[in-house]
Amino acid sequence: MTERRSPPLDEVPAPDVSPEPSDKSSSRRPADAMPSLCRRAEARLLVVDDEEAVVRMVERVLHHAGYSNVRSVTDSSMALGVFEEYRPDLVLLDLLMPGLDGYAVLEQLRARMLEVPSPIIVLTSDVTTVARQRALSLGALDFLTKPLDRIEVLLRIANILEVRYFQLRQHAEKVLLEEKVRERTNELEAAQVELLDRLARAAEFRDDTTGEHTERVGRMAARLARALLVDEREVRLIRRAAPLHDIGKVGIPDEILLKPGRLTGDERLVMEGHTAIGARILSGSRFRVLQLAEAIALRHHERWDGSGYPEGIPGDRIPLPARIAAVIDVYDALTHARPYKEAWTPEAAAAEIAAQSDKQFDPWVVETFLELQHAGSLLTTGIL
Ligand SMILES: [Fe+2]
User: Fold this and answer.
1) How far does residue 287's CA lie from ligand 1's centre (Å)?
2) If you measure from the C-alpha of residue 301 to the centroid of ligand 1, how many angstroms do you get, rounded to a whole number?
3) Residue 274 C-alpha to ligand 1 middle, in angstroms?
4) Which of 32, 49, 150, 193 shows a CA-CA span of 20 to 30 A to 21?
5) Is residue 61 within 8 Å of residue 20, measured between CB atoms?
6) Nearest to 20 by CA among 185, 151, 179
7) Class for the domain spanning 3-176
8) Which CATH superfamily is domain 205-375 in?
9) How far is the CA of 125 from the centre of ligand 1 (A)?
C-alpha cells in the first residue's frame, strides 16, 4: 500500500518524531493556538513521505489533535494524482525520496494549484541554505526539520491553516463581489440598451409607430460595420447608436414632418435641421455610444461628394459610422412603403445605392454593402 485514507490508531515507534509530552499543561499549549476542533475536523491534510514510520507517527499526532481528514502517500509518484483528487488544505512533503524527490513533486504541484494555492510544508533533515532556497523557489511555504517535534508540527500546521482559511474567505468574498459587480453591470447595460431603443422609437414614433425602421437600421449598420472590419466593440456600439440617427425629428413640426406632398424650399431647410437638432440632443456625453450617436445624427445626410447637409463636408471627413448609416438609412427607406411611396424591391434599391456610389455614398462602403445585400446577409448579424 502506498496511500492510506484513514489515520492509523495503532501506536508505532517514531524514530524521528519526539514523543507526545505527558505533562498536561504543556500538551494544552498547541491546542489553544490551533484552529477550532470543528475546523480541524474539516481540514484536509496530505502527507507525502517515503518513510512509513514517519508517516504513521505524523498521522497519529494529527489524529490525536483532532485532524480527522489525513491522507498519506509513501510513493511520491502518486502524490500529484492524490493531490488533484483530494485538494488538500495543506501538504506535508518530504524532500529526500526515491524516484521523484520532493523538489520534483513541488514542481508538479505548483503547476496544478488552484487560485488559492494549497500551502506546502517541507519535511527535511537537509537544512542547508541551498536546499531551503531551492524548496522556497519551487513554492514551499515553510519547513519542519527532522526529527520532527510534535508541538512544532501542530503549531506550524495550525498557523498555516489559519492563513489558509483567511485566504479562502477572502477569495470567496472576492468571487462573490465580482459576481455582484457582473450582475449589476449586466443590468446597467441592459437598461442602457433598452433606454436607447425606446429613445429611438420615441424619435420616429410620429411616422413609424412600430419602431421597425430604427431597429433595422441599427442591425444592418452593425452588420455593415463588421464587414468593413470595424473593431467589434465599436460594431456593438454602432448597433445601439445608429437607430438614433433621426432623433432630431422630435424638433420638426408635424405639418412639415408629416406633410404628404413635396416640401417647399423653406420646409426642406427646417426638415434638414433634424441633423443639427439630433446632434444637440446627444451632444456632450462622455459615453462612446452617445458620442457615436451624435456623429451619426449630425452627419448621416452628408454626401461623399460634399453636396450634403448640414455642412457639406466631403469624403472621409464624414465619420465612417455616419457613412455606414447613410447607406443603410436610404436602403431601408427605399425597401419599405411610406404614405407617399411604394416599397422598392431589394434589387432596385441596391441598384440605386450602387448608382450613388462616389456621389452620395462612400464607394468602399457601397461595395461592401452590395456584397452583403447580394449574399442576403444584411440582417443576419447575430448582433442583438
Ligand atoms: Fe435623417
Assistant:
1) 22
2) 6
3) 7
4) 49
5) yes
6) 151
7) alpha beta
8) Hypothetical protein af1432 (1.10.3210.10)
9) 83
Instruction: Determine the distance separating the centroid of ligand 1 and the alpha carbon of 245, expressed in angstroms.
Output: 6
How many C-beta neighbours within 10 Å does residue 281 have?
A: 18
**Which residue, among 215, 232, 214, 230, has the nearest Cα to 364 in the 3D structure?**
230
Would you list the domain boundaries of the chain? 3-176, 205-375
Query: Using CA atoms in the order 44, 49, 55, 59, what is the torsion angle rounded to 10 degrees?
Result: -10
Q: How far is the CA of 255 from the centre of ligand 1 (A)?
A: 17
